[in-house]
Amino acid sequence: MAGERRRQPSRRRSSRRASIAGFIALCAVALCCGVGYAAWDTRHDDSAAAEDGSAMTATTAPADLSDDAAGSPSDVPSSPSSTPSPTRTTPSPTHTTTPPPPKVPTHGSGTFTTAQADGAASGQGRIRRYKVQVEGGIQLSSSAAAHEIAAILADKRGWTADGRDGFQLVSSGYADFVIKIATPDTVDAICGQAGLLTRGEVNCDVGATVVVNLKRWMLGSPEFDGPIDEYRALIINHEVGHRIGHGHEGCPGPGKLAPVMMQQIKGLHGCLANAWPYDSQGRYIQGPPAA
Predict the structure, then answer these.
(1) What is the 8-class DSSP label of residue 205?
(2) Quick one: which of 24, 239, 273 has its CA closest to 130?
(3) Which phi and psi angles does 53 have, rounded to 5°?
(4) What is the pTM of this model?
(5) How distant, in Å, are the alpha carbons of 11, 30, 35, 141, 144 from that of 168?
(6) Among candidate residues 236, 234, 229, the one with its CA nearest the CA of residue 266
(7) Other beta carbons less than 10 A from residue 119's beta carbon
(8) In b/e form, how buried is each residue of 184-198, taking b as 16+ CB within 10 angstroms?
(9) How far is CA 259 from its chain centroid?
(10) How far apart are CA 148 and CA 217, in angstroms?
(11) Which of 43, 82, 183, 225 has a 20 to 30 Å separation from 132 between CA atoms?
């Protein structure tokens, strides 16, 4: 029993040494695991830092490209906040209105003023002197009308192209004929004395006088689709044509130019409206005789 008691402390010391050795081994294992974990964690952080660095480089690359001599500004995306949006303006619609036709008085003073305008002779052969007169009270310049008529009679497509007739505008002295521009009522009165019925609408040629209806001079004719100055040429060429011996002519055929001696205001009958007796090549535009 005493011997057993003496060995008992030895077993307790051995047990304590075993416990201490186990504890030391356990600590060693824990220490190794901790170092390994720390080493793994450090390597993981380095990889994460590398990925973040790549992300930053990608983010800042466009800004670098804008200063790169080898780059192009068009390669750099624009920031919506730094580029103002263009202002779009919608043009206002433009409304064009056709001006109303001028008001033509139906009657004037009944007296006429001779245009104080003279011109050089045009054409060859017989030179006919003429005056231009405008009725009072109609607000039409006699001088302006005279110069316009002179230009019509001197045009190379006019009657001077025949080589036999010429014209000269004069303001005084002898005149072979007079061109009067008058209101519809006055035209009816002058033409009516010769037995002609104009009904306030058309022109006439009476004796040594060509009477131009102001309504036709200002408004043209619904049968003539050209500009007003062309229709004025038709009036003068038609009436002066009578003065030099031409009678009325009809339409030479559908689609052809109407002769200037055709009464175009009464209908074109398939012809094309035309203001000149000759074309630009000097050929006479002729139709069959008409009453």
Answers:
(1) E
(2) 239
(3) -65, -40
(4) 0.67
(5) 161, 133, 127, 19, 16
(6) 234
(7) 18
(8) bbbbbebbeeeebeb
(9) 35
(10) 12
(11) 225
Topology of domain 112-248, CATH = Collagenase (Catalytic Domain) (3.40.390)
Confidence grade of residue 102 (pLDDT, cut at 50, 70, 90): confident
- pLDDT tens column, 190-210: 999 999 999 999 999 999 999
Q: For the segment 122-161, what is each residue's pLDDT rounded down to a tens digit?
A: 999 999 999 999 999 999 999 999 999 999 999 999 999 9
The span from the CA of 262 to the CA of 286, in Å, is 9
Two tokens at 18?
A: 């075993």
CA distances in angstroms from 134 to 41, 76, 211, listed in the order given: 114, 77, 10
Give the residue carrying structure tokens 């049968």: 223
- Could you give the C-alpha distances from 256 to 208, 230, 232, 269, 273, in angstroms and in order? 32, 18, 21, 10, 9
Q: Of 63, 82, 60, nearest to 73 (Cα)?
A: 63
Q: Which two tokens stand for residue 30?
A: 């824990």
SS3 66: coil
Comparing 44-53, 145-154, 243-252, the range with the smallest average pLDDT is: 44-53
- 10 Å CB burial of residue 129 (0-12, 13-18, 19+) is middle
Domain ranges of the chain: 112-248
